[in-house]
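QA checklist item 7 of 12: single-chain prediction sanity check.
[x] sequence parsed
[x] length recorded as 530
[x] structure emitted
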Amino acid sequence: MTSKTTSIFPFWSALTIYWLLTGTLLLASVSNTHGSFIYPLDDTYIHMAMAKHFVRDGIWGVDKSSFSSSTSSPLWTLLIAITYKIFSVNIWSPLLLSLISGSLIIYCCYRLLATNTNPLRLFLLLLVITAFVPLPVLTLTGMEHLLHGLLTLLLIYLVPAYLSKDSFQFKSYILLITLANLITATRYEGILLVFLITLLFLSRKRFWEGLFFTVSSFVLITIYGCISLYNGWYFLPNSVLLKGNTLQFTLEGIIAFLWRMINHFYFSPHVVALLIACLILYLRFKHQLKESEKILMALSVLITFTHLLFAGVGWFFRYEAYIVLILMVVFADVLNKYFDFQRIKINKESLYDYGAIVFLVFLFLVPLAMRTGLSFSQYPRAVTNIYEQQYQMGLFLQKYYQGQCVAANDIGAINYLADICTVDLYGLANMEVAKYKFSGSYDEHVIRRLVLDNKVKVIIIYNDWFDGNIPSDWIEVGRWKILNNVVTGGDEISFYAPDISSEKSLRKNLIDFSGALPATIIQSGSYLSP
């Protein structure tokens, strides 16, 4: 017999603690940035820059000069743009959207885990999920990952409920398709989940339902892809193509794919621990599980494996966050339903058994706890990194290069803060760079030509990103170095003038701006010489 907790106490208590933790971290970070609210990732500013130009200039691009498919989350960028249209361009919209997403995650977990538990245990479960995802840190990134986690959690619970029934249910089927569209438009990793769900349809000989589900789940990203193709870009965003773990059918490509996959498992002990825990739980209760619960556990394990195969992990705790959320909720759900907590009696005979269980739980939770501790400790430092590097770059360009063309490899904050034309030397916002990279012909000559053709006035880059391909005729005028870097692509940026005519003004601008820089930034270069 199952029972459902009706007390609202666990939800509101967990939600309050989530908000308090988020607010505390925010206040801790602001003290390091002279009162400015800063996101700990430059990627957030890419969303904001694109949303700004879409609302103000009618251009879906990182700058207002032309279209660029530079976001791996078109839906998130669109949501920010909608808030900008209503409330005007502001720094807070991504944070508010993330906070709403995180709050809805806690509510969904509360509803899903309320069976066969008491208010105290439910509260503790919600608290553990909040801490270990970790919701507060991910909220403060202002990125789409919590929305992705929310939508994925809803879909993987609705699919087993639908497939466990033999009849076609129109309303439920449309809801599955709607969620699948929203997930793929939020994060392209959602494509992996759609294909896994299709396989589940096929395994139950529901061929036409599975086929239509697959085709109709890609409506939103197909529309976006067609718009990109029309504007001369690839069907998939450059960020997905440049950063994804794609498989090339050559010996070198296969080896590189396998090596990245091994690294993903190696650097994700928290995910591996949760996987093992779920598998142990399945083996323990497999004869008691309902059909829908077996599908749920299988889908959770499969999406974890496919993510580690084809997608990324890490980079400020976000890429695999939805996997951590899913596995934790599924584990807690099954444990609540089938482990009889009422019959736990500690005596001499059971002491060793329960001691072993406690030890195993502790063993599985250690990687998650370490990851949470690291995320909480690194967040203020990451904010400081972005403030001292990308944010200062943006202020510098806003003051001296407004309306002019610059070249850079970090394009978010500079385009949100300044209205400039940008040559993205990494390729997220520059189609020509991406094509040269994919063809293996991106070299010094190409970089020099791109800068000359676009009449670039200043170049700001990480030197070590270019493998000796920095044009020899560029003139390095200065460098800014940050300390204790945990999040940026490098701790030192270099300022180059593309020619002698631009060198004098760059030198003057760096001298003038040097006094406004935080004292913790180490400045060096010829502009400091008398």
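[x] summary fact logged: The first strand starts at residue 405 and ends at 408.
[ ] second reviewer sign-off
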